[in-house]
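Reopening this one. Same input as before:
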Amino acid sequence: MPEIIKNGAIVADSWQLFKLAAGETAETVALPAGPLLVPLAVWLARRQELAARGEADSNPLGVWLDAGEGPEALAGDLDRLAVVGVNFPKFTDGRSYSSARLLRERYGYTGEIRALGDVLYDQLFAMRRCGIDAYALRADQNLEKALAGFATFSETYQAAVDQPQPLFRRRAA
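Same output, byte for byte:
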């Protein structure tokens, strides 16, 4: 079973990341059993079916957003989702940082936000600051080494999801 970093620890990952293959449609594709992260297109096409499936304890459900997809499409459904994945298709594409922060701050999502795709250890500190709490690192990354990335910086200057007060306000208090 693959492993991820979740809440600062290495854990087994029982979730299946589902992607549409060429020629498959969101409306008709067969979905596997078990904990499943589906693309936004599948969720939008089959919301009622998937919501009913997600209510069963043995079939928890999550949706993943590609970098160009905003979280506003999930705003009314977040209470049904155990996980929201945010995809980083390449290291230089940071749009999913914004999606994660919006999920936490604007939409009040308290469930797991998982970084997917081209996730490298040196991004983890910034991802955590945006509200991401689970990380499916790229296959060539070492999970133990990646855990050390959270301690790279001892102090932060700017306000973020993980520290709502900037440094100058914390020092003045």
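So the earlier flakiness isn't reproducible anymore. For the record, Helices lie at 40-45, 47-54, 95-105, 124-129, 143-148, 167-172.
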